[in-house]
């Protein structure tokens, strides 16, 4: 989706689907880790949607992989287990995703970096609630 106008409705639909998952599928009292992961994703996609109003598109691919990397770091700390191999594989995937987005000229370097930072920061914001 090259323009910001084309990105609005898929983002809105994704946010609504994540809200349905959070409230109907994953209650917070059963698995708070997964619950707050999805809350972080909702925050990240909402931030990306807000940036669309100022005509700035972020890389949703990098947003997703950044959220997943930070979530895995949080899980590693929370359960006190070593997930270095999984983390290194995800970071490798993040590099592959970023290079493919640049190769296809879908985003600029700044859009990729902003997407990654939004994904990491929103997961970082959920840490006090479950970690």
Structural write-up:
- Helices cover 80% and strands 0% of the residues.
- It has six helices and no strands.
- It has helices spanning 4-25, 32-53, 60-79, 84-103, 109-125, 127-130.
- The longest helix has 22 residues, at 4-25.
- The N and C termini lie far apart (36 Å).
- 27% of the residues are buried.
- The mean pLDDT is 93.
Mean pLDDT equals 93
Weakly predicted, low-confidence segments: none
Tell me the number of strands. 0
Percent in helix: over 70%
Strand fraction equals under 5%
Rough outline: globular
Which value, in Å, is the CA radius of gyration? 15 Å
Alpha-carbon distance between the two ends: 36 Å
Q: What pattern of helices and strands is seen along the backbone? A: HHHHHH
Largest sheet: none
Helix/strand-derived category reads mainly alpha
Number of helices: 6
Quickly list its features.
single chain; 131 residues; mainly alpha; 80% helix
Secondary structure: elements and pairs:
Elements (H helix, E strand, L loop, with lengths): L3 H22 L6 H22 L6 H20 L4 H20 L5 H17 L1 H4 L1
Give me a quick take on this structure:
The longest helix has 22 residues, at 4-25. By secondary structure, this protein is mainly alpha-helical.
